[in-house]
Amino acid sequence: MQTLEARLKYKFNNIGLLKNALVHSSYANEVRGNTHSNERLEFLGDSVLSIIVADHIYHKFPNLPEGELTRMRASLVCEKTLCAFSRELGIGEYLSLGRGEDKNGGRERDSILADAFEAVLAAIYLDGGMTAAKNHIMNTVLRDLEHHSDEDSFKDFKTTLQEIIQRNPEESVSYTLLDETGPDHDKQFKVAVKLNSNIIGTGVGKSKKQAEQMAAHQALKLMGEDV
């Protein structure tokens, strides 16, 4: 647990909260007794995450209309984003799963990892309050957003590209990691975005998410979109 605490950059006063955040329902159902799943913590973490992100982008981008704020928040708290940070923190290694769930790859399942991220956030919130929870979110979900100084510099290029491609149901977009360089504290990622199997853009960033956004941005520019 000490390794996970180091990754979280938070030292628990009540380590039981963190342990509970890592208990999947499949494990709780198997052992029964006084073991409770992380579902209640997940519920709380979802709300804490939403208010922290909403408050941050509301104040950081004072000129964005409600619709754009909603869209930005959705892209920041979606399952794909949360499970990516969960993987980055190595949360899957510490999950208590039922034998069947573990055998069937539960430690890598997106939904389980995203839910665990929210449960861990709730554990931090209950242990250290809103300030501790916000620090955790600033170090993860909102980390890339801090590179943008105004609303014009942050655009959800991935969503824009997806909406354009979806006009043709036969087409699909995917992202592939091409390269990963640098030390752990200063990684740089290079990502390609593909239309079906053809590369239509590449991007570089301090995280996979940022690199994907840059790849989508390049693809939109090559398609003649005003971005």
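(the above was protein one; protein two follows)
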Amino acid sequence: MVLAAAAVAALAGCTAGSTTTTPEPSPTTTRVPSAELAARAAHSATSLPDGRVLIAGGCVTDGCSEATARTALVSAAGTNAVEGPSMAAPRTNHTATALPDGRIVIVGGFLGENAGVTGSAESIGPDAESFARLPDLLQPRGGHVAALLPGGRILIVGGWIAPQRSSASAEILDPGTGTIGPAESLPWAADALGAAVLADGRVLVTGGQVEPGVASSEAAVFDPSTGRWTPTSPMSEPRMKHAVVALADGRALVIGGTPDDAALLASTELYDPVSGRFERGPELQEPRYKLPDGALLLPDGRVLVAAGGRTVEVIDVSAETSEVIEETDRRAAFASVTLLRSGDALVVGGYDDRIRLVGRATVVGLP
């Protein structure tokens, strides 16, 4: 498949609370030229220790009816991609967690449209040559969240488990010992949640879909030292299919989402772990959702958001602004963004408003 390059265009008419900017075309915005990086959405994209990026799973047909077990390896420079080893199961909306020892652990996910979810877990080493099976989850799930705990353990929370049924259950996978066990349940049952590991090692979990088309504003923090959840004050509005990014100053930024699968949110919220409260953050340049793997923290403390909308933007929390750096032709829901060693960002995949795969893989230069 020939991968389309994203167009860079000037923007006007910014939303309230943001600065008006007209981005210059970026000379480093390029496509990834490889037939092996097939169009996909709802996949994962995770950096390996040598700088390569593992693209795993995702849906590979318009309508997202078919999931894949195939992977691809993008070079550290983002200039080419080759086919990687296949996973044991096809999966979408799974989680991929990078361990301190260089392994990547992939857990759960949907097996395809109307095909249920998997409880399988597997890891791939730093050489990215093959996958190794890990213990199955106690509860098969998709649309869950996973967070790295001290000692390389992984907290797995919530998710869709059956038609019109989500779970509050949590479990802890220890890839080092090859064991898995139950953890205290989240105070509410949901899928399409958001999560981030705070600076002190605790895990913030937010919102999610509590019934079809209904999001929650609840939030709670898991303390790995006690194994207990502590509810926080709620977010200012219900959100699901949003993103949460831990900031360098210890706070966490909650980005976009939807309250009802109809209205999309351009708002953000800042969680303060000291007060346990949320406050309003910078407004996005456009409303966006379906971005669990579409936002990341940049080395300078800003946040890059590259999924769920028709633009790529950079949020500066300290300046209370968000700046569009690239405009694309179609919305890219469930796209991924990964930081390359060059300091550029690799943006892969997604689907548009009609659930058609966009087939896009680009390296975006950052201002």
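Reviewer note on protein two: The domain at 30-364 is CATH 2.120.10.80 (Neuraminidase).
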